[in-house]
Amino acid sequence: MNSHERVLSAVARRGYDRIPVKHEGTPEVNEMIMNHFGLTNMEQLLRVVGDDFRYVEPVYCGPELRTFPDGSVEGYFGERYKYAEFDAGKYLEACYLPFAEVNSLEDLDRSHFPTADWFDYSTIRRQAEALREQGFAVCCGTAGDMDFINGISRARGMEQVLMDLIDDSPVYLEIMLARFEFFYEVQRRTLEAAGGLIDFAHAGEDFGNQRGPMISLDIFEKHFAPKYGKYFEMVHCYGARTMLHMCGRCEAFLPRLIELGLDVYDVVQPTTPSMDIAVLKQRFGDRLIFCGSVCVQTTLAWGTPQDVEHEVRRRLELFPDGGLFFGPTHAVQVGSPLENVLAMYRTAGSLKEDIDDSILSIEGDEDDVDKIDMAKLF
Questions:
Q1: Are 171 and 108 in contact (CB under 8 A)?
Q2: E strands within the chain?
Q3: Which residues contact 144 (CB under 8 A, 6 or more apart)?
Q4: What distances in angstroms separate CA 151 from CA 90, 111, 145, 157, 378, one per listed residue?
Q5: Which of 30, 40, 315, 372 is deepest in the core (most CB within 10 A)?
Q6: Tally of structural domains, the chain
Q7: What residues are paired with 289 via a beta bridge?
Q8: Residue 294 CA, distance from chain mean position
Q9: β-bridge mates for residue 60, sequence order
Q10: At a CB cut-off of 8 Å and minimum separation 6, what does 136 contact?
């Protein structure tokens, strides 16, 4: 089977030669893997770990996203990001929030709002055709698309956003609508340009924290359900499936998201018994594909290779015919032992440890490690 066949067979629960894999790692972890195998770019890394998914993206041609003297980089809504340094690496954080002190629509500067016209979609079809010819499952979008809680928090502040959702702040709702229309139209044009060659459209929304929901079901129904329902319907009209990245404890939202049209629940963070992958499969496995589920906070970071192997084999037994795209619960974090990461993919049957010229000769952008990190924020 090639990757495309493997992924679609998993969706249909028809079985496969090995479980489909979707990799995610911080730049430091990706660099660790690349150094171990002598790789020079992300495409080589994805081939080695056996990632079955590749992404198409339109070419940005909008206003210059400025880099400021302090090293911060401008986002689509005028927010700025800068790497916060720590002993083992770095992590992108918002450092300038343009809407933080805006309390009325009269004070809201809409000149920061982006438009789908900022992108060139003319290469999308060629990108998708090339990936299909190589046998990959083709995706568009990122975990940062939509993302009305996290995304707007990076331009307004998390506490303010959570209060906005409770009191129906007109400022927040205006930004939310602008964000929805922007990402909806970018993905619609991308799907249209691909001509049916995109398999999954990816978006993100962290509805949960470690132990419970971030918002109530009533707030979800009022502000989120109409937008996601419209977005999921649009994606399905172009023959693609919907994939939503959600960190935290999100099981309370799954029945409604399934009704609205969610196909793939991305990353599955097993922080509580109710979020255990076996429990989720029993409750929703006939209506939903899961993605991720190997915990980056416990097993991968602090366990032994044997612990990792045990968790992987458990998933292989739970999903012998499909229903799970295998991978970590989020980006594998800094400090996770290389042995654990390799054990994860080796046990899944996807790791290529005998590196030959067919992989080493693959060209790619050496800066892709950091570009992926940035893309999720915008």
A1: yes
A2: 53-55, 59-60, 73-74, 80-86, 89-96, 119-120, 137-146, 200-204, 241-245, 264-267, 289-294, 324-328
A3: 150, 151, 204, 375, 376, 377, 378
A4: 20, 17, 8, 10, 8
A5: 30
A6: 1
A7: 264
A8: 15
A9: 119
A10: 2, 3, 4, 52, 53, 54
In a domain, 102, yes or no: no
Amino acid (one-letter) located at 131: L
Structure tokens at 310: 């045990």
Rounded Cα distance, 279 and 88, in Å: 35
Residue 234 near residue 184 (C-beta atoms within 8 A) = yes
Interval 161-212: pLDDT, tens: 999 999 999 999 999 999 999 999 999 999 999 999 999 999 999 899 988 9
Q: Tell me the CATH number at 54.
A: 3.20.20.210
Q: What is the pTM of this model?
A: 0.95
22-58 pLDDT, tens digit each:
999 999 999 999 999 999 999 999 999 999 999 999 9
Residue 78 in any domain: the answer is no
Please give the torsion angle defined by the CA atoms of residues 290, 298, 213 and 99, in that order, rounded to the nearest 10 degrees: -100
C-beta neighbour count of 173 within 10 angstroms: 15
Domain membership of residue 316 (yes or no) is yes
